[in-house]
Write a structure and sequence with these properties.
Radius of gyration: 28 Å
Helix content: over 70%
Structural class: mainly alpha
Order of helices and strands: HHH
Number of helices: 3
Number of strands: 0
Largest sheet: none
């Protein structure tokens, strides 16, 4: 609210520094978001297992793909 009052009282002069301030805030926040997203994706990639170890090749009592394709 105080910032709005300062801008309103000094409008022509305040427009230049207000634009600069808003741009700086946006750039800082965008940078923080990008850093957090990259850290999160690195954590997810490191916790994932290779494709072959996600599912066992054959489970006892479970039908295999080959037997279901024959029928």
């Amino acid at each position: 609210m105080l910032l709005g009052l300062v801008v309103l009282l000094q409008w022509p002069v305040a427009a230049v520094w207000l634009l600069g301030t808003l741009l700086a805030v946006e750039l800082v926040l965008s940078g923080i978001v990008m850093i957090r997203l990259s850290r999160r994706s690195k954590k997810q990639r490191s916790s994932e297992r290779p494709w072959g170890s996600r599912r066992p090749e054959s489970s006892p009592g479970a039908p295999s793909l080959e037997s279901s394709q024959r029928t």
